[in-house]
Amino acid sequence: MKPASRTGIVACCISFLFLLTLSACGTTPAGNAENGQKWYKMNNCTACHGEKGNGGRGPNITGIDMGFGSFFRKLRKKDAPIMPPFPESKLSEQDAADIYAFLKSAK
User: Fold this and answer.
1) Is residue 94 part of a domain?
2) I need a labelling partner for 35 at 20 to 30 A (CA). Which of 14, 28, 81, 102 fits?
3) What is the distance between the alpha carbons of residues 78 and 85, in angstroms, rounded to a whole number?
4) In angstroms, rounded to a whole number, what is the distance separating the alpha carbons of residues 41 and 93?
């Protein structure tokens, strides 16, 4: 095999891996705001963040301005000073996407 051919194959493989990684990092599950409102209330988010995420003891998260990945990591984080972690056994990724959709749509 000629060196130029190997270079082309390596470049193609690197491009493929880059695109694969990029697509995996940026995916947000489709959320359902109506279901999200139910999950939001069922997980007692209202106690700190208010009925529609508009504050209370916790910060105002109405119309949340962070990406889903950041939001999801905050839900799973175990070292938050006040907010409890929400493991997969308590809140699935889909349920989190629904809550995220609810908060994004809240006015």
Assistant:
1) yes
2) 81
3) 5
4) 17
Residue 23 counted as domain residue: no
**Residue-wise pLDDT tens digits, 23-60:** 445 577 899 999 999 999 999 999 999 999 998 888 89
Q: Which two tokens stand for residue 98?
A: 């629904």
Of the candidates 54, 50, 88, which has an alpha carbon nearest to the alpha carbon of residue 72? Answer: 88
Q: How far apart are CA 33 and CA 87, in angstroms?
A: 21
CATH of the domain at 42: 1.10.760.10
Tell me how many helices (H) and strands (E) the chain has: 5, 0
> Which DSSP state fits 85?
P
**CA nearest neighbour of 45 among 26, 29, 64:** 64
Provide Rg for the chain, Cα atoms: 19
**Nearest Cα to 25, choosing from 70, 64, 66?**
70
Q: Which domain holds residue 85?
A: 33-105
Query: Is 6 contained in some domain?
Result: no
Torsion sign, CA atoms 79, 82, 87, 89: positive
